[in-house]
Amino acid sequence: TANALWEQRDEYLAAGMDDYVSKPFTEESLLGAISRVFTRTDSSGAGEIEAADGVAAGNGEWRDISLFDEARLQAIRDCANADGFRLLLEQLAEALTGGIAALRTAHREGDSDQIRKLAHRLKGEAGTFGAERVAMVAGALNTESDPARIVSALTALEQAGQETVAAIEERLQH
């Protein structure tokens, strides 16, 4: 944001912003803010992407959604040096793996509120980085209330997450 007063910063964070970077910013401050979003331990979202109309996690339609929004990835890559971009990809892979594991735990414990919070957070983290498939399935899980469909959505999310993490690992090798 161009607003740089500390009072405004506090106001924005209180309103739900995930972090705050004022202009002019450095590459380090921007990458630091992005990194902090991916390493949070609370259940706040990190961006928004809406679940596509008609994409039901349990019926396989999510497979038609691309793993990544390549334009969004390129925009992030353009803002970071190679090491910074690599670090962000690594953190995304960790966030996806950890988020999906936490969702499974919440499901085993029957904690539907935690499932919604974690799915919302995962949707935001994935959406921030353009991991479209995970964001869409997590978005569908975020709004699901039927127990059988929750199980199907979790299974779909695990598969989408594994495919996305594998694609990240492949990108990191190049």
Task: Please explain how this structure is put together.
There is one protein chain. The chain has 174 residues and is mainly alpha-helical. It is 66% helix and 0% strand. Residues 41-56 have low confidence and may be disordered.
Compressed to H and E, one letter per element, the order equals: HHHHHHH
Give the proportion of residues in helices.
55-70%
Shape: globular
Which class do the helix and strand fractions yield?
Answer: mainly alpha
The radius of gyration over CA amounts to: 16 Å
Average pLDDT, to the nearest integer? Answer: 80
**Uncertain segments of ≥5 residues (pLDDT<50)?**
41-56
Strand content: under 5%
Question: What gap, in angstroms, lies between the N and C termini?
Answer: 34 Å
Q: Please, how many helices?
A: 7
Query: What is the β-strand count?
Result: 0
Largest sheet: none
